[in-house]
User: Which sequence fits this backbone?
């Protein structure tokens, strides 16, 4: 496929001039490539994670442990996407953060966080599936700057209700067919017991 600058250009969806490394609250959403269901299923209005979904959860929890400037809030893994609220505390101290390429996102920023998270999840799931180098996520992520308590509480409620509302959302595939190349399908409930 040949590059065509008339149709093959990307526009930033970020707020122009905004410093995404500054202290604040952010809502993020990332979707699997082609919105493919990889992380589990919705059963009776609750998300039940498979091994790939558990890897997403493990890597997200690790985020707060290795990036001192990050505080996690509400989050949910869905069959083909992930929602979260994250606080950047802006103290500039970071434990275990990997260096970011000069052309990549600013270190200790929301972009850096999302790039590292997506990369680590992709690597682990590709190891599970035996598909090294295969893209897992859509190229970008959606973010929203949370500016007040009312907005924060509304987004928390949206995240909390996301599994219950799955079947009513026209954008979600019905039924959501799981990938068969994930070799082990141990199902987990939210409390970690199968």
Assistant:
């Amino acid at each position: 496929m040949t590059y065509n600058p008339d149709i093959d250009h990307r526009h930033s969806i970020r707020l122009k001039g905004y410093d995404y490394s500054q202290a604040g609250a952010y809502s993020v959403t990332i979707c699997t490539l082609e919105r493919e269901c990889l992380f589990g299923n919705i059963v009776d209005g609750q998300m039940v994670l498979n091994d790939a979904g558990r890897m997403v959860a493990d890597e997200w929890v690790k985020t707060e442990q290795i990036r001192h400037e990050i505080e996690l809030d509400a989050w949910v893994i869905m069959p083909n996407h992930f929602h979260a609220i994250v606080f950047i505390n802006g103290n500039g101290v970071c434990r275990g953060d990997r260096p970011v390429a000069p052309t990549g996102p600013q270190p200790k920023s929301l972009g850096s966080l999302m790039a590292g998270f997506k990369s680590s999840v992709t690597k682990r799931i590709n190891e599970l599936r035996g598909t090294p180098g295969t893209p897992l996520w859509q190229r970008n992520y959606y973010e929203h700057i949370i500016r007040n308590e009312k907005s924060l509480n509304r987004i928390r409620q949206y995240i909390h209700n996301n599994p219950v509302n799955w079947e009513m959302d026209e954008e979600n595939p019905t039924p959501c067919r799981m990938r068969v190349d994930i070799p082990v399908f141990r199902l987990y409930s939210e409390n970690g017991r199968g």
Summary: The chain has one domain: 24-168. Helices lie at 51-66, 110-129, 149-165. Residues 45 and 165 are 7 Å apart (CA to CA).
